[in-house]
Amino acid sequence: MAQRDLQTRALDNLQGKGTNPFGVEGALRYDMDAQHMPPHYKRAHKIQNDLVITSLRKSEQNKLHVVVDLGCGTANDGIDILSRTENEFYLGVDNSVPMIERAKCKMQSRAFEKRSYFLIRDFRQMSVMDITGTLSLLKLECRIKAVMSTLALHHYELEEKRHVYTLAHNLLPPGGRLVLTDLFSNGIQGCAQYALYWEIDQVCGTIENSKEKPIDSKLATTRSVDHYLRSNRPQRLLDEVGVLHDCGFAIVDIVYRSGQLSVIVAQTEK
Ligand SMILES: C[S@@+](CC[C@H](N)C(=O)[O-])C[C@H]1O[C@@H](n2cnc3c(N)ncnc32)[C@H](O)[C@@H]1O
Does residue 256 fall inside a structural domain? Predict the structure, then answer.
């Protein structure tokens, strides 16, 4: 579809002007939206979780292997990871109480409450001690082997992300990995716009094809054109890679790219 058509379609579908997509109302509809995201989101989650599981399995025996998820939401990825592993522990961090409440309920319903823990915190203000101290209080014989963050950072400026990437780097052992899935922009204006409108077109497609009732225009949701046009602030992918290197990561790989969505793996020095 030509860029102008994509833009027109995006504006025609403008809806979902919610105030807080992770508030009480937003948390309730988040999992329904997550289920209906376009196929490239599902693919990115799968690649990301496979890579996290691979990192966790490289751990030494006799220790619980921990993945820390920064901006865990309702813990869909945590549930996928725990259901495909045996000796792994999931520590989710999020600053939305409604999202964490849902995450805890879902962990309980899957009998994963002993293999998971949640911290209600703003990850931009956390220290390594906040996380390692929590794990010691839980009296777990464990080692953090992976850090992940999915679709939680694209509202922030690069300067704010530096703190989060430095935190991730300092939590990881030598050769440890941060698996980052998020929306990123492009350096060339026309390419950036194309990526944005392609992304919006995919989301519009899932809204138009779904059998759900039309979204109430006041309801908070991330699955809306409004969210892509007015809320998201994706940074340029290559700038992001530069910041990850600045924060101490030795190798940064772009594992997947489709529209604005990318899976990045950043590894610490071995
Ligand atoms: C789009 S959701 C993604 C949730 C989950 N990672 C997933 O992929 O399903 C973004 C999440 O990041 C959380 N978040 C955003 N900024 C945050 C911050 N500064 N500190 C902690 N959590 C944050 C939001 O509350 C929300 O639950």
Answer: yes
Residue 169 lies in a domain: yes
Q: Whose CA is nearest to atom 16 of ligand 1?
A: 152
Confidence of residue 211 (pLDDT cuts 50, 70, 90): low
Distances (CA, A) of 76 to 72, 108, 227, 242: 8, 13, 21, 29
Q: Looking at ligand 1, which atom is closest to the CA of residue 72? A: 6
150 close to ligand 1 (CB < 6 Angstrom)? yes
HSE-up (13 A, CA, CB side) for residue 7: 7
User: Is 205 within a domain?
Assistant: no
Q: Give the chain's mean pLDDT.
A: 88
Residue 124 domain-assigned? yes
Structural domain that includes position 77: 26-183+235-267
Q: What stretch of H or E contains 79?
A: helix 76-83
Cβ of residue 71 lying under 6 Å from some atom of ligand 1: yes
Q: DSSP states of 16-75 as a string?
A: ---S-TTSHHHHHHHHHHHHTS-HHHHHHHHHHHHHHHHHHHTSPTTSEEEEEEET-TT-
For position 119, which CATH number holds? 3.40.50.150
Tell whether ligand 1 has an atom less than 6 A from the beta carbon of residue 103: no
Which percentage of the chain shows pLDDT scores above 90? 68
Total tally of structural domains belonging to the chain? 1
Q: Which pLDDT belongs to residue 87?
A: 86
pTM for this prediction: 0.90
What is the CA(71)–ligand 1 centre distance, in A? 4
Query: CB of 21 closer than 6 A to ligand 1?
Result: no
Name the pLDDT band for 108 (thresholds 50, 70, 90): very high
76 in ligand 1 pocket by Cβ < 6 Å?
yes
